[in-house]
């Protein structure tokens, strides 16, 4: 039964990523953490995310803003080791709490339509990339800082979606190697990925259909409400873990 729910989560998170170019880790991580723990959820989501990036880039690579992507990638690489240390040594309750804060903050930002300042200088990408690396190495949550950077740089929608995939593909590969060196590619993780692969492909196909036909604003609002609920659930779970037995 646990494997069934893991497959369902991989399908739903892939559908969101395929439709909007980001968000699979934000959907999958809080649910998978509750099912299989942070140590297994992190490498599993990374494997699924790399698969999604390759698929989407095959049809949209011409829209990638290469210079912006590489700035973010280089700074993300510097942050990944810090994220791995956080994952290895921080208590799981702390990991759940931090991820819950990220989810609640990002979903509220989207739902309340905060107007962030426009970034004129591309050097800001190094700061956003560094934060993304720390969150990505620990919890596969490198998306929010990069998404916020793209919003604040006012990237056009097509460039936004494609550039994110170029970024996620390279950083995802680096994170995968880091997870392997850290001994996180267990037999359980690899089998769950294999079982979930058909669901990932289905999510990609349906998400592509959604991207072209369903009004993006309505779907995005629903996704952000779901993320807000997941973030609150994760924070409550972290508080429960911290209480003395």
Number of domains: 1
Low-pLDDT parts are: none
For the record, give the distance between the C-alpha atoms at the N and C termini, rounded to a whole number.
28 Å
H/E order of the elements? HHHHHHHHHH
Mean pLDDT: 82
Count of helical regions: 10
Can you give a write-up of this model?
- With 245 residues, the protein is mostly helical.
- It has one domain.
- It is 83% helix and 0% strand.
- Helix 5 packs antiparallel against helix 10 and helix 6 runs antiparallel to helix 7.
- The two termini are 28 Å apart.
Please render the helix and strand layout as text.
Layout (H helix, E strand, L loop, with lengths): L1 H19 L3 H13 L1 H23 L5 H24 L2 H20 L12 H16 L3 H10 L4 H25 L5 H27 L2 H27 L3
Helix pairs in contact: 1-2, 1-3, 1-9, 2-3, 2-5, 2-10, 3-8, 3-9, 4-6, 4-8, 5-10, 6-7
Features:
245 residues; mainly alpha
Task: Provide a compact summary of the structure.
The chain has ten helices and no strands. With 245 residues, it is mainly α.
